[in-house]
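Hi everyone, sorry if this is the wrong subforum. Our group has a chain we'd like a structural model of before ordering constructs, and none of us has done structure prediction before. Sequence below.
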Amino acid sequence: MSETKLDDIVSLCKRRGFVYQGSEIYGGEAGLYDFGPYGVELLNNIKRAWWRSNVHQREDFVGIDSAMFKNPKVWDASGHTSGFSDPLAECKNCHTRIRADKELGSIGVFADEKMSEQELNKLFDENRNKIKCPNCGEKDFTEVRAFNLLVKSNLGDFTAQDERPVYLPGEACQGIYLNFKNVVDTTRMKVPFGIAQIGKAFRNEISPRNFLFRTREMEQADTQYFVRPHENKDQYEKIKQTRWDWYVNELGIKPENLRWHQHENLVFYASDAWDIEYNFPSLGFDEMEGIHDRTDYDLSQHMKFSGTDLNYTEPVSGEKYIPWVLETSAGMGRMFMAVISDAYTVESIGEGQIRTVLKLKPELAPVQYAVFPLLKNKPELVSKAREVYDALSKKYICEWDDNGNIGKRYRRQDEIGTPACIVIDFQSLEDDTVTVRDRDTTEQKRVPADDL
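Answer:
Right subforum, don't worry. Here is the predicted structure as tokens:
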């Protein structure tokens, strides 16, 4: 079968109710998406799998859920108000804005993120004749300027004279650092230990693109693991391996679609940074999760800006120190895209027919069992099917489907990834057996209804 394209994934997500364009009835809003009935179930199952592995199955981890709005000083301390920006240039003809560093990278010219605005402009000027506006094709751009990605908001009834800048979170992890002391004071956690959170983040992206890959509103699944200073290397390598194994074993991602990428030019707070990249349809390999050694930057900054002592005291020795932080941070939208893309399969089923099927891990599937009465106009079949549906739905996510012929119902369930379809037919009324059809093999077998 032909190679999967991003358009194939987008089409399936819209057609089968996984993802809709945000505010679609008003023409849509770029970079904003709504998860539909099947999408929200798949997303929640991915979240549950992540939470189970990172919190419930770990004695050395706890979870939190911090408020999105935070004191504005938080973003000063984190460096977001001064350093959280994209270098943009605007087309003088059609006013489309482009990421200067990305456009330079596309022609093989590397732009270091540590470059000053002046240095980047010099590099951009040297290569202007090679860069075209993606909208109109012109090569006439303004100077490159830093564009801050924080989304401004307001909080409370401030007068114009007393107004203070308030922001939606640029990243979800800051709430973990803010609650480090609270967790130490109110639990029995001792260094080394971790805090996990799935939280919202917002980016003032000028050119969101590629479906869920780059959006203005996102969810991030973050862990911050607090260790003794300079005792980070072994833990860091262990965390990297754990995260790789999780994608393969828990999400069912094919190993050949994953790879490691080490950052050569580190941001100022990191001593090491690696990405787990996924081979996204039409996009190629790109970041899905970042794993960072952040040293003691975050807690030190918040201690400095807040005036609160965030030193950790060893229970036995009384030694005090600022813990170092080992971070994992994954975008749930990208994870969702990877899971669907990896499961998306188009295959021949004989006699010139093909089918599209999502071969999701059963525990991730938005529907685990679909129950069909063979005919919806036969009350005895419907009644028996309802008994089966009611029994299964107490424990599993089930769907009732009596619309159209059996073949069409199978195709619908294949496309949303339902692992098994259960058909109640006339034989079911005689011997209390049902037909179970397997999604991946399409094989059918009869089993006693009580065995379901």
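For your construct planning: The domain at 367-451 is CATH 3.40.50.800 (Rossmann fold). The first strand starts at residue 19 and ends at 21.
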